[in-house]
Amino acid sequence: MKILIIGHSHTGCFAAALKEHQNLPGTASFKVLALNVERFKPNTERVTVSEVLSKTGDKSPLQRRNSRAAERIKAADSYASMTGDSLIRVLTPKMEIRLANQIARHRPDVIYTIPKGNEYARFSMVEYPDPFRVSDLDNPDIPAPENTSLIPASVMRAQMRQLAEESGLLYWRAIREMTDVPVVMLPPPPAIRDESHLRAHPGAFKENVEKFGLTPPQMRRQFYDYYADALRAGVAEAGGQFAELPKEVKQDGFLTPEFIRSDPIHANPAYGSLMLGHLAQFAAAITEQT
User: Fold this and answer.
1) Within this chain, do residues 113 and 233 fall inside the same structural domain, yes or no?
2) Beta partners for 111?
3) 74 and 174 part of one domain
4) How far is CA 160 from CA 233, 257, 270, in A?
5) Which of 8, 19, 61, 127 makes the best surface tag, with the fewest CB within 10 Å?
6) Per-residue pLDDT tens digits for 26-64
7) In whole angstroms, what is the distance from residue 286 CA to residue 290 CA?
8) Are residues 74 and 188 in the same domain?
C-alpha cells in the first residue's frame, strides 16, 4: 500500500522517521510531501468575495477553487456581514495544479493531510498585553491575572473553526477534490505542557515569551482541543475521515514528553515512527472497508 503524507512543518517528524528507519515493518510504503518549500510557495493568496463568486465552475483549477471557496463563504457564520470587497484565503491556481500533479505522480492508495497546524498557538502560547480567558465549563479552573477578560467558549470555538477553514480544512478540501482515494485529516501533535521546555526553546515566540510570559498549560491544551475539534467537525460534516491520535502520544491531553522536539510546537522522529505504524493500520482498515 502506498501512503502519501501532505502538509507543512509537521511532516518533518515523518520524514525524519523514514530516514532513520529505511525498512518499516508491514507492507505500507510512505512518501512525504512538504508544502513549506520554495517550489510550492506561495501556497495561498487572499482574493475578494466578488472575485470568487464571479468565476465559479468546473472547467479549470481556478473555477474549481472558487467553487469550493463560494461554498465556504455561504456556510460561514460571518457571511451576512461580508461584502464584495471582503477577503478570503484560497490556494493559488499554481498550487492547485502542482498539488494535483504530485498526487497523480505518486499514485497513492491513501493520502493523509496535516497542513499548517500551529494556528491555535497564536492565541494560547503567550499572554496577551490585555489577558483573556475562555469561559468554558469543561475548563473552569485555568489561572488568570487580575482584570482578565472572559470570552464565551462559543465565540472562541467559532474563531478556531474560521482558522481551520483557512488552514487545515482549506488544503484537505482541495486535495480531496483532486483524487478518488481516501484523504484523511490528521491533527497536529498535542500542545506541550512543560514550561521549562517552552522557555528554553521558544522559537518564534521568544520575544513575546520574555515580554509577556507564557499562558497556563491548561489554556494551551484548551486551544489545541478547540482547533482539533474544528478540524474534526469540518471533516465529519463533509463525510470525510479523521485519524484520531493514538493514546501513547498523549499524557493528560498534552504531548507525551518523550515525543517533544527541541522547539515549542513540533514532535520528534520517535513520534513520527510511532505514528507511521498507526497510519499504516488506519489506512489498511479504511481501504478494506472501501
Assistant:
1) yes
2) 4, 183
3) no
4) 11, 26, 29
5) 19
6) 678 999 999 999 999 999 999 999 999 999 998 888 999
7) 6
8) no
